[in-house]
Amino acid sequence: MALPYRELFVIITFFSTMVGGVFTLRRASLDIKPFFAFAAGALIGICFFDLLPEAVSISISSGIRIIFLMIITVIAFLFFHVLDRFLIFHGMEEGHGMQTSGKVKATGLSIHSFLDGVAIGAAFHVGFELGLVVALAVIFHDFSDGLNTVTVMLRSGSTRKTAFSWLLLDAITPLIGATMTYLVPIPIYVVALMLAFFVGEFLYLGAADLLPEAHSHGSSIKLVLATILGVCIIFMTTQLLNI
């Protein structure tokens, strides 16, 4: 039963990314900062109420030392920090090679999206409940991925057609990532390490990417409440699903 659900949710991530990108291409005036704040809370919530507990549970039954999970989590966090600082943010620099730099950042965002697909696939390897919550968190923040992909391409001087092409790539890569997880058998102990990796990724995306973006033009009680709401919804979802 897991495969149809997995395919369904990965397809939804495709449309979530596309909606975010098309939203930007049409230059809609709706305030999206609360959405970023909500998605940040959801990602942080899923790390502590879903991914990390499951990774620890699997590691205990598989004889994996917990310290290895923590190391993998920190490595993942630092990996995305380095990716952003030396590749993605470099793409925002003015001057010569601006379009090339924009493509570098768009490529970095596509790497994020590919790993999102792997996260969904790996979670469904464990069970439907875990896969469902991970898929929801990915769907929440893929809207911002699509938005960012189009934004960086337009700022680099690319045409709207080129920006749309990169948006399409960003939307497709989760499909590729998820497909790989059920074409290649994954031992359960490897799944535990993968979940720890995605804890680091989601923590980075939520705390170091989406939250600063949400508050980039000033903070408000609405943004704070949106983040708290994101955390609470993930907590209640995991409790209802008995994760």
Could you characterize the architecture of this molecule?
- The protein has 243 residues and is mostly helical.
- It has one domain.
- Helices cover 84% and strands 0% of the residues.
- Helix 1 packs antiparallel against helix 6, helix 4 packs parallel to helix 6 and helix 4 crosses helix 7.
- The protein is globular and about 50 Å long.
- The chain starts with a helix and ends with a helix.
Q: Could you provide a short overview of the structure?
A:
With 243 residues, the chain is an all-alpha fold.
Give me some keywords for this one:
243 residues; mainly alpha; globular
Structural class: mainly alpha
Mean pLDDT comes to 84
- Which residue ranges are poorly predicted, with pLDDT under 50 across at least 5 consecutive positions? 89-97
Most strands sheet: none
* Total domain count: 1
- What percent of residues are in strands? under 5%
- Count of individual beta strands: 0
Shape: globular
**Helical element count?**
8
Percentage of residues in helical conformation: over 70%
In angstroms, what is the radius of gyration? Answer: 17 Å
Order of helices and strands: HHHHHHHH
**Roughly how many Å apart are the termini?**
18 Å
Set out the fold topology.
Blueprint: H1 2-25, H2 33-62, H3 66-88, H4 98-126, H5 128-155, H6 160-183, H7 188-214, H8 221-240
